[in-house]
Write a structure and sequence with these properties.
It is a single chain. The chain is an alpha/beta fold and 172 residues long. 23% of the residues lie in helices and 37% in strands. Helix 1 crosses helix 2. The protein starts with a strand and ends with a strand. Magnesium ion binds next to strand 5.
């Protein structure tokens, strides 16, 4: 059985999400904000985030898949769901669960730029430094983590553990 070492409790996450939501609410006051969640991992984070915002927002999702074998990124990004909302002249905030190599996000930023939005910024639950390959500017980060594979609160290992309320380091 793999070991699960606690990293953030649900209470820790709630506090961090609330703090980020306050910053976003201030920064995007009187703007036309569209949050774009990256499926599937960001679905719980996005859901909690919008409920903590004090400004109106629109929500959409993109699907991106890069992991072929569980914990290693293939670097070969596949778009599994396109956006539905008209993004021209909108302020876009990409909402990601975890940034690892950065390859998925740099691909998604290029994809979203093609819709001519006014601005694109990035918000992630976890910024993991260990394997960064592509330079990405992350504007809002809930938690920085150096090394290791994390699960829970939407993050999976081979589609398991998304349902855990907290975040854990998975020791395989
Ligand atoms: P990147 O393209 O290497 O930055 O990978 C980003 C995607 O890989 C994230 O959106 C996650 O879905 C997945 N990922 C990267 N690291 C982890 C992890 O520690 N646990 C679960 N999923 C991860
Ligand atoms: Mg993801």
């Amino acid at each position: 059985m793999p070991d699960l070492l606690p990293v953030l409790t649900k209470d820790d996450i709630d506090k961090r999400v609330n703090a980020i939501a306050r910053r976003i609410s201030l920064d995007y006051k009187d703007r036309e904000l569209v949050l774009i969640g990256v499926l599937k991992g960001a679905f719980i984070f996005l859901s909690d985030l919008i409920q903590n915002l004090t400004i109106p927002v629109k929500v959409d999702f993109v699907g991106a898949s890069s992991y072929s074998s569980g914990t290693s990124s293939s670097g070969n990004i596949r778009l599994t769901k396109e956006v539905d909302i008209d993004l021209r002249n909108k302020d876009i905030l990409i909402v990601e669960d975890i940034v690892d190599t950065g390859l998925t996000l740099s691909y998604l930023v290029d994809y979203l730029k093609s819709f001519n939005p006014k601005t694109i910024k990035i918000c992630t639950l976890i910024d993991k430094h260990e394997r960064r390959e592509a330079k990405v500017n992350i504007d809002y980060v809930c938690h920085v983590y150096e090394k290791g594979f994390l699960v829970g609160y939407g993050l999976d290992y081979l589609e398991d553990y998304r349902d855990l309320p907290g975040i854990y380091h998975l020791k395989i």
